[in-house]
Amino acid sequence: MISQVTHPVIRARATRIRDASLSVFVAPQLPSDPLAAMPEGPEIHWMSSFINKHARGGEELFSHVSRSALATHERKHPPIPIPESWEHFTIRATARGKELRVVLHGMREGAAAGEIPILFRAGMTGNFRLKEDGEEFEKHDHLRLHIAGTDRAICFVDPRRFGSWQTTAAWGDDEERGPDLVHERALAVENIRTRLDERVFDKPIGEVMLDQRFFNGVGNYLRAEILHRLRVSPFRRARDFLTGALEGSGGNLFDMIETVFAESSAILAKYGFTDDAERHTAFEDWLQCYSKLASTEDGIGRRIWYDPAVVRGDKRKGKRAAIDEAEDTAADETPERSRPAGARKAARVSRKKEAARVSGKKEAASISRKKATASVFRKQATASIPRKEKAAPEEAIPVAPARGKRTKQGQVDVLGPPPRTRRSVASAECATSRARKSDPAPAISQPNKAAASVIPRPANKAAAPKAKRAPARRGRAA
């Protein structure tokens, strides 16, 4: 039983969603505060507008930059030294996807004196706020841009300290961050089109939409809302869906991205990115899928929200795809109803067989690719294991073959023992010495005649049989 929740965003959700495809009840987990999620494209662009607003479009003068006592990570939170030659500096912010760049423009005697670019990444809880006169700095105001002649400052706030900043003029590496989906739409579409053959697009579209190389600015709540409004299952293979989207038949994916971005930005423009009940309520009322419908864990460990009815419909559509394709290709000029009933039935059976054959070919090709991949990995693993060197065989002592009878082909049938090694010879000598002590005349087995011929038998006259005397002849001697 789900206990009642009084949080203004979550409220009480004790109802369960019936998933007929699984025949089980799927209860959506109570989500954390949506505002506690990672800031996404609309939030980053709002931060850029917030900074420019309080910097008065680059006219406000700033004096220096400081850090909090908790900003001790030298790589993620490096110090920002201001040249002594600068009297003041102004700032201007721009956003691109999930990255924010603030440029400090130095001034000396009213003229430009250089610039220092700072690239921010908000992490999980990054945000900006304005510290007013007479107000104390908060614990997590990690980077502070002090306004000259006042006690005010624009502060980068990050309670969980996953965010970072660094002094660089370049945006993120192209291997990590792609173009902005809204402000650089043409570049973003071309980036996906030219790389659609990469293996990453074999994954579900729900996972690929979090890859910032292709969907820079999209996060967890945006992917849920975009796919839900397009009525697309997040578990569909990304390449299949994006191929149609790039050809203009994918449900206007990029138009929907711009629409959802604009709606989220409108809420931010009205209520700001603040943690209050009014903004929570407005954001919760705007959401249609995220934190409201069924959810599960995707392949990269993130919670993904979806409509079970859309997923079931997509599965049925996938099963019918091969049949529909076969029906389209096998369409005849003769109308279906004008044919006899038997012909229509035969045509349906033929189409089903053709669809099964196409589906079987695709499945066999998939299995073949998997086997080839496994074979390559197996060879690589085998090659990486060092082979043990074989021990040198023991030197065999040549033994003279025993006499044997000659066969019809002129070969000699050797009945002697097989070649013996040094170890076997030593064992035989020990056995012979023990046999001499116990039995003066040991029994000789048939296979060891050659060995017995070498070993001298001890003399024992008493044991020798007596020769029989020849019988005397009767009669006279000749």
Notes on the structure:
There is one protein chain. This protein has 478 residues and is an alpha+beta fold. It has helices at residues 41-54, 185-194, 205-208, 220-230, 238-246, 253-271, 277-286, 308-329, 341-384, 422-438, 449-454, and strands at residues 17-19, 24-26, 62-67, 88-96, 99-108, 111-121, 127-131, 141-147, 153-157, 164-166, 294-297, 303-306, 396-397, 420-421. The strands form five sheets. It has a four-stranded antiparallel β-sheet with strand order 3-8-9-7, covered by helices on one side. Strand 5 and strand 6 (111-121) form a beta hairpin.
How would you concisely characterize the structure shown here?
By secondary structure, this protein is an alpha+beta fold.
List the helices and strands and how they pair.
Layout lengths: L16 E3 L4 E3 L14 H14 L7 E6 L20 E9 L2 E10 L2 E11 L5 E5 L9 E7 L5 E5 L6 E3 L18 H10 L10 H4 L11 H11 L7 H9 L6 H19 L5 H10 L7 E4 L5 E4 L1 H22 L11 H44 L11 E2 L22 E2 H17 L10 H6 L24
Antiparallel strand pairs: 1-2, 3-8, 4-5, 5-6, 6-10, 7-9, 8-9, 11-12, 13-14
Helix pairs in contact: 1-6, 4-6, 6-7, 8-9
Characteristics:
four-stranded antiparallel sheet; flat; 478 residues; alpha+beta; 14 strands
Total of DSSP H or I helical runs spanning 4+ residues:
11
How would you classify the helix and strand content by structural class?
Answer: alpha+beta
- How many β-strands, per DSSP? 14
Largest sheet: 4 strands, antiparallel
Averaged pLDDT: 75
In terms of per-residue confidence, which ranges show pLDDT below 50 for 5 or more consecutive residues? 1-35, 319-323, 325-338, 449-453
How would the global form be characterised? Answer: flat
Instruction: Report the sheet-strand fraction.
Output: 15-25%
The percentage helix is 25-40%
Name the strands of the widest sheet in spatial order. 3-8-9-7
Cα(first) to Cα(last) distance is 136 Å
